[in-house]
Structure formats: structure tokens, C-alpha cells
């Protein structure tokens, strides 16, 4: 391209054949530009670049989720550990759900998005909702454990919720004030015990405001909470939250933080449900903002692990449940401060390893199956290929671009 540009520089000398030479150079320039445009169209487009901040946030949130699960067998031994447990549970899943909502903004119900939703969320749900009960039957020797796709067990509730939330994304884009509507639905769910356990709809509805909030956010909102003043303010906020959690341990039912029961099921008056829903949403929102303020925005050693957080989330449950079924958590040495710290570190290391690329490659056939044999070809794409005479490699490149545009999963 440089020689084409240089040919446009005027010459200070003239010759009898100057006009012929100019015409020839003009034709050469047009041919060169045409070749350049053709080469640009033929060259594969670069993959969408991932934002290190969000990958860092997802990794740190999933570590908190796994460590929180490891504290469950020990939290009754120490009020300090119970306070830490309540503190972590007040924002680790809200933070993860807000990010999931943020990356669901592009979901429009198109065939490409629906395919990715089925292969990336619905299929793993079916697989793990079947695998966990079978795992318990053989490891815990519990033949009474049934397989039910309507009753999410242990960790699989999030996949069920994510599927429902993402399907409803086009609806939330149409609503004038989506967040107040989502909060209203969550508050109504807390006074509706008749919802039952099918598809864990209590959690789907009570955590819904965090997903809708993520849909409403823009990149500049995350930049606001990452300012230095917010990071400094987050220190006393975290300290006050820990102190409040320590005070609330004997006074508050920790099940409120799970968002899986109505007020009546928790033995509280009906009006406590909406009040607690609003209060917990506000507290979780503040702590989530503080958490985001401390997430590094630059590339770290664990940034690459952010793409595999769903692997770590679903797979670490087998480790936790194995230790539980085999009675490993009953070891008295683990019920001391050093033992609890050792378990926390071990689980953090384990979930980190489960997010690594080698593990992702092994389990990709379950977590991200292509399943091209299931879906029909897009009629519009087929028409474009017939019209343009697209080559197979071009069609494959378009499919890859659609997958990248489909957004990042939770």
C-alpha cells in the first residue's frame, strides 16, 4: 500500500508521456486498492479481546464460592467463622450474577444465541443434575437419592436460573423500569411459599434483581466503582460489614442469604420477606461494589482462569461432597483455626486448578459441546452461502464469529 500512496506525490518535472504515465499509475492504484480490500475480506477477523477486569472478578468470586462451601461443615464451631461465612455469602453470588447479567446484554433470542444457551447452559445442567445424584449413590452409598431434572440439587440451581434469566432478557430490554419490576417480583416471591421447589424458582426470582442490574449496567459504571476513592472507602465498609455479621450471628437466620425459601418457610411473619429482600439487596449491592473496587483491572497470573470459572464452579462440588460423604471433615484437627485455614487454602488451590485450560479441554465436550448434529442450519446463512458461493472455510469462520459475538457465559 505504501507504493500506491507514494504514486500520488506530484512530480516537479514534466515529460511528453506524463499523462499516459499518470493514467497507468491510476489504474495500478485502483488494482492495488482492490487487491488490498480483497485480502482484508479474506483474512480472518481477530477474536474478541477479553477484558482482564471481568475475568479477574469471575475468578475471585468463584474462589469465594468454593471456600464458602468448604466452611459449611465448620461454621458452627466458631462465631468468627460464622461471621466470615455470612459476610462472604452476602455478596459472592450477587457479584457473579451481576457479571452474568452484564454479559447477557447481547442476548436477543436469535438462533445463534439460543444454540449457545442450549449447549452452554441447558446441556451442562442436564449432565450435572444427573451426575451429582449418581455420584452420591455410589460414593455415599445412598440408593434413595433420586434423579430429577425439576429439582436442582446442590450447585446446579445456578444453571437453571441462568437459563431462565437469559431467556427473559429480551423482556427486560422492553420494560421501562426493569430493576424495580425485578425487585417487586423478588419481594412477592418471599411471601409465596406455594412456589415450591420445582426448578428452584424461589432462587430464580429472589436473585433475579442482580441479573437485571447487570443487564442495565454499562462499562462506565464498573469504571466508577474502580476509582481510588471507592477502593479506600471499601476498607471501612468491609470492616463494618464483618462487625455487623459478627453481631448478627446469634440473631439472624443465615438461610435468608440463600434466597431459597419464603418468609413463612423460615418461620418469620409474611411482611419480613419483602423487608429482608430489600435490605439484603441493598447490603449485597454495596458489598458487591466494594468487591469490584478491589478487583485488579490489569492482566494477572489468574486472569486466564476467568474463562473457566463455570468449570471450577460445577466440578469443585464433587471434591466438597467427597470429603463430606467420606467423613473427612469430621477430623478433629480440621475443626481448629489452623485446620480451617488449611481447608480454605486447599479448596482455593483446587478450584484454581479446575479453572485451568487443561481441565477445560478435558471437560469441554460436556460444558461446551458443539452438537451441530442437533440443530438445523440457519436458513438465512444458507441463502447467503448460495448467493455468494461461500467456501466451507468462510462458512466456518462466520460460525466462529457468531460464537464470539454470543457473549461470555457465567
TrEMBL record:
Keywords: Membrane, Transmembrane, Transmembrane helix. The chain crosses the membrane at residues 83-104, 116-135, 147-165, 229-249, 269-294, 301-321, 341-363. Residues 1-48, 383-410 are annotated as: Disordered. Residues 22-43, 383-404 have a biased composition (Basic and acidic residues). Signal peptide: none annotated. The keyword Lipoprotein does not apply. InterPro entries: Acyl_transf_3_dom, Nod_factor_acetyltransferase. It holds the Pfam family Acyl_transf_3. Residues 8-19 have a biased composition (Polar residues). Residues 52-355 form the Acyltransferase domain. This is Fucose 4-O-acetylase-like acetyltransferase. It comes from Streptomyces achromogenes.
Amino acid at each position: 500500500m505504501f507504493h500506491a500512496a507514494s504514486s500520488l506525490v506530484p512530480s516537479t518535472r514534466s515529460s511528453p508521456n506524463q499523462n499516459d504515465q499518470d493514467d497507468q499509475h491510476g489504474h495500478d492504484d485502483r488494482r492495488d486498492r482492490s487487491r488490498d480490500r480483497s485480502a482484508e475480506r479474506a483474512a480472518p477477523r481477530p477474536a474478541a479481546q477479553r477484558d482482564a477486569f471481568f475475568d479477574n472478578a469471575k475468578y475471585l468470586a468463584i474462589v469465594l464460592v468454593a471456600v464458602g462451601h468448604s466452611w459449611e461443615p465448620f461454621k458452627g464451631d466458631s462465631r468468627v467463622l460464622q461471621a466470615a461465612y455470612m459476610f462472604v455469602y452476602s455478596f459472592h453470588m450477587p457479584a457473579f450474577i451481576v457479571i452474568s447479567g452484564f454479559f447477557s446484554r447481547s442476548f436477543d433470542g436469535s438462533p445463534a444465541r439460543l444454540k449457545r444457551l442450549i449447549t452452554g447452559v441447558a446441556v451442562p445442567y442436564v449432565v450435572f443434575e444427573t451426575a451429582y445424584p449418581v455420584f452420591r449413590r455410589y460414593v455415599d452409598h445412598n440408593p434413595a437419592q433420586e434423579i430429577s431434572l425439576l429439582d436442582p440439587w446442590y450447585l446446579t440451581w445456578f444453571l437453571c436460573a441462568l437459563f431462565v434469566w437469559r431467556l427473559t432478557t429480551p423482556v427486560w430490554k422492553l420494560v421501562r423500569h426493569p430493576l424495580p419490576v425485578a425487585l417487586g417480583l423478588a419481594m412477592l416471591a418471599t411471601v409465596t411459599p406455594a412456589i415450591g421447589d420445582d426448578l428452584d424458582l424461589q432462587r430464580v426470582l429472589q436473585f433475579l434483581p442482580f441479573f437485571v442490574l447487570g443487564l442495565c449496567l454499562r462499562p462506565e459504571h464498573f469504571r466508577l466503582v474502580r476509582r481510588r476513592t471507592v477502593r479506600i472507602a471499601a476498607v471501612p465498609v468491609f470492616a463494618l460489614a464483618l462487625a455487623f455479621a459478627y453481631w448478627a450471628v446469634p440473631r439472624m437466620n443465615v438461610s435468608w442469604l440463600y434466597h431459597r425459601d419464603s418468609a413463612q418457610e423460615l418461620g418469620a411473619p409474611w411482611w419480613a420477606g419483602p423487608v429482608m429482600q430489600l435490605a439484603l439487596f441493598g447490603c449485597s449491592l454495596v458489598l458487591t461494589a466494594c468487591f469490584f473496587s478491589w478487583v485488579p483491572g490489569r492482566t494477572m497470573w489468574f486472569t486466564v482462569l476467568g474463562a473457566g470459572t463455570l468449570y471450577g464452579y460445577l466440578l469443585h462440588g464433587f471434591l466438597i461432597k467427597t470429603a463430606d460423604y467420606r467423613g473427612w471433615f469430621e477430623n478433629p484437627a480440621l475443626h481448629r483455626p489452623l485446620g480451617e485455614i488449611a481447608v480454605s487454602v486447599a479448596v482455593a488451590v483446587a478450584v484454581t486448578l479446575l479453572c485451568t485450560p487443561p481441565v477445560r479441554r478435558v471437560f469441554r465436550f460436556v460444558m461446551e459441546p458443539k452438537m451441530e448434529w442437533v440443530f438445523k442450519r440457519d436458513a438465512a446463512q444458507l441463502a447467503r452461502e448460495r448467493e455468494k458461493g461461500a467456501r466451507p472455510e468462510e462458512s466456518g469462520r462466520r460460525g466462529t464469529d457468531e460464537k464470539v459475538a454470543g457473549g461470555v457465559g457465567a
